[in-house]
């Protein structure tokens, strides 16, 4: 099966680049496989979008959740009957979507699985703003405190994995603890509230350890959500602990 590998060497603070020799060996071993290294934000989307025209049946994202997000949005621009399958080799700091998908093993094992494995269908989310901008997403969509953690995590360089997101969360609690008004309709039921955080999930966790919906499934045709109302900073610390414990 011809596969296009989209590799982001800057994932996980550029630690993903250490895996490049393994990827290059795999490309040499599988005829019809092509490796492309991303150069900038949004590059993975453009590469994935053209994969079908280039004759690829499978596109493999090698990077973090951000790389997967870009590749998914590129693939979703391709008509469904022409859309290549998606493979993922998690090389990021969180890798939450692959955990929800039950992908386990070494990076080499997962690359082999992505190249030779059988595909399956999963659910996908779509968000659109009041300007008509659309984004597909596969793991989680955060508003408020949740989104702020993601932004702050990009400036944490001395740590990796879960600690990146925990430090970002503490920073948000200490220095940018703000709420927002929420007005929505869910399954025809109106909902208005003042919230600190709203997280809609397809997967089970985000931030490497925060279990937003432990019982969630990627293929049940449903999305789950978790909301945190306006509470004190101390209560938010307790809430983060509850998320880490999956309770």
What does it look like?
This protein is α/β, with parallel strands linked by helices. It folds into two domains: 3-120, Probable inorganic polyphosphate/atp-NAD kinase, domain 1 (Rossmann fold, 3-Layer(aba) Sandwich); 127-245, Sandwich (Tumour Suppressor Smad4). It contains eight helices and twelve strands. The protein has helices at residues 20-29, 43-49, 65-75, 96-100, 107-116, 145-153, 162-175, 233-245, and strands spanning 3-7, 34-37, 58-63, 85-90, 125-128, 134-137, 140-144, 180-186, 189-201, 205-206, 210-211, 224-229. The strands form four sheets. Strands 2-1-3-4 form a four-stranded parallel sheet, with helices on both faces. Strand 5 and strand 6 form a beta hairpin. Helix 2 packs parallel to helix 3. The termini are far apart. The mean pLDDT is 93.
Overall geometric form:
globular
Which CATH architecture of the largest domain?
A: Sandwich
Can you tell me the residue ranges where pLDDT is under 50 for at least 5 consecutive residues?
none
SS elements, strand count? 12
Q: Count structural domains.
A: 2
Structural class: alpha/beta
CATH class of the largest domain: Mainly Beta
The biggest sheet, with number of strands, parallel, antiparallel or mixed sense and barrel status, is:
4 strands, parallel
Q: What percentage of the residues does DSSP assign to strands (E)?
A: 25-35%
Provide the fold topology.
Elements: E1 3-7, H1 20-29, E2 34-37, H2 43-49, E3 58-63, H3 65-75, E4 85-90, H4 96-100, H5 107-116, E5 125-128, E6 134-137, E7 140-144, H6 145-153, H7 162-175, E8 180-186, E9 189-201, E10 205-206, E11 210-211, E12 224-229, H8 233-245
Parallel strand pairs: 1-2, 1-3, 3-4
Antiparallel strand pairs: 5-6, 7-9, 8-9, 9-12, 10-11
């Amino acid at each position: 099966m011809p596969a296009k590998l989209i590799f982001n060497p800057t994932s996980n603070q550029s630690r993903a680049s250490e895996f490049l020799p393994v990827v290059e060996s795999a490309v040499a071993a599988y005829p019809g496989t092509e490796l492309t290294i991303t150069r900038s934000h949004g590059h993975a989307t453009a590469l994935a979008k053209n994969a079908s025209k280039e004759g690829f049946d499978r596109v493999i994202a090698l990077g973090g959740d951000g790389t997967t997000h870009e590749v998914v949005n590129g693939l979703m621009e391709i008509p469904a009957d022409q859309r290549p399958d998606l493979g993922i080799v998690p090389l990021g700091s969180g890798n939450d979507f692959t955990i929800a998908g039950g992908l386990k093993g070494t990076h080499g094992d997962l690359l082999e699985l992505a190249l030779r494995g059988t595909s399956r269908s999963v659910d996908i989310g779509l968000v659109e703003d009041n300007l008509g901008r659309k984004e597909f997403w596969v793991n989680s969509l955060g508003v408020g405190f949740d989104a702020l953690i993601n932004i702050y995590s990009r400036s944490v360089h001395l740590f990796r994995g879960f600690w990146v997101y925990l430090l970002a969360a503490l920073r948000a609690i200490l220095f940018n603890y703000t709420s927002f008004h929420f007005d929505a309709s869910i399954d025809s039921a109106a909902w208005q509230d003042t919230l600190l955080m709203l997280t809609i999930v397809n997967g089970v966790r985000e931030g490497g350890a925060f279990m937003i919906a432990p019982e969630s499934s990627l293929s049940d045709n449903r999305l789950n959500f978790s909301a945190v109302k306006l509470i004190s900073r101390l209560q938010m610390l307790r809430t983060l602990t509850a998320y880490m414990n999956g309770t």
